[in-house]
Amino acid sequence: MALTKAPSRKSYKIVLSLAVLILLLFILQGVFLAGKIPSIEIETALPAIGKQTPFRIKASELRRGLTFVKTEFIQGNTSVTLIEKTYSVSSQLFPWGFKTVTDTLTGTVGVGDMPELQEGSAVIRVTVGRASTWLLHPDPEIREISLPVRLRPPILQVTSTYMYVSQGGCELVTYRVGPTAERDGVQVGSWWFPGYPLPGGGEQDRFALFAVPHDMNTPDVLLIAVDDAANRAEKIFIDRFNRKSFKSDTLNIRDSFMAKVVPEILAQSPEIEDRGNPLDNYLAINRELRIKNAETIKALAQKSQPEFLWSKPFLMLPNSKVMATFGEKRTYRYEGRTIDHQTHLGYDFASTSKASIPSPNDGIVVFARFLGIYGNTVIIDHGCGLMSICGHLSSIAVKEGQRVSRGDSIGKTGSTGLAGGDHLHFSNLLQGLPVNPIEWSDAHWIEDRITRKLDEARGR
Ligand SMILES: [Zn+2]
Fold first, then answer.
1. What is the C-alpha separation between 32 and 98, in angstroms, rounded?
2. How far apart are the CA of 148 and the centre of ligand 1, in A?
3. SS3 assignment, position 449
4. Is the Cβ–Cβ distance between 168 and 435 less than 8 Å?
5. 423 CA from centroid of ligand 1 (Å)
6. What is the pLDDT of residues 251-287, one digit of tens each?
7. How far apart are CA 204 and CA 384, in angstroms?
8. Is 224 helix (H, G, I), strand (E, B) or coil?
9. Which residues contact 186 (CB under 8 A, 6 or more apart)?
10. Alpha-carbon distance 410 to 253, whole Å?
11. Measured in angstroms, how far is the CA atom of residue 345 from the centroid of ligand 1?
12. Pairing of strands 196-197, 191-194
């Protein structure tokens, strides 16, 4: 019996001391287990404060959880609370209980939050509380960031006069912007035409080449300068807008034409699925592939050099006949019914078969391969967002990245892509937007609309 009694007394002691230990730990925890120093991150979407700067705050405390997060906007003696949020914290005795260990808060800060806000700098302060115990009441953690405050938009002055622009055409504007501008240029509907430094001009002298899309009937054209706090200066500067009525044309689509063009384009364009019959394939090419090709062309605008690479008027295909013009509205008919409508955004020139194509101007080849509806295509950058596109080539004689001079042979005409017969499809592009090439081949237009304006702005 003694043998069994002795261990039971011993185990009783063990259990008792364990219980005392747990109780002690429990009490110690209740006394000392305060919230840890929370982590705080403050991010703003803009590097300055103006009308509205979006911000994001991330606060975390893993042990006892968040108690409160307060965000204030402070300048001098003025302070405004932007966000205040409280949380239910876990109990000091049961810290594993319910708590919010991390939270992300978003909002905006700007002059609307503090009408007396002055230019200079201001502070975003974030205070995150820490859970207390019977004994410990730790101070909340504070994090601040200081940002410049800018309330006035950049100075913006138009320096050119006689601003005339045609539907589907280009124009150049010269202007001056203040040093706080971070982005400037011309917005035309959804198209953005960035500004460039005026060659030979002062530090604040800029120019922008812009264009009005062929389908814009009323001009939505603004000169814009924006600073890093999103303060925006805007100017309406168009003196005259010429509406254009473009030609209409009907194209009868024949089976023999589809049989010629569809297989080649499908084989070269993995982005288009085979619809199983020539007509549906033709329509997919004429609609979907046309849009995808326009996107590819637009993306190339990013590669444009920030200076003019050309100086003379653009060359058209010599000894040729114009078969189609820019902006032509085309109705496509098949077996007596209308199957599609599209706009022809270039000039078609027919010469002899496989005629040599001169480079329309000095520049750098940015594209030299098959491009959907345009077949074998060469796109040349002439700088400041201006490019030219030559399509339907039977052969390409240049490589991407190659510098070309006005008149150099870039290939031979053909009928690749959506072409019935041997011809050259030619257009100018501005920031990827097809524009009427007739302007760029006209020495008087270039002198009047481009060269004179740049010279006058330099002389001012
Ligand atoms: Zn064409």
1. 19
2. 52
3. helix
4. yes
5. 8
6. 999 999 999 999 999 999 999 999 999 999 999 999 9
7. 18
8. strand
9. 173, 192, 193, 195, 208, 210, 221, 222, 223, 224
10. 30
11. 7
12. unpaired
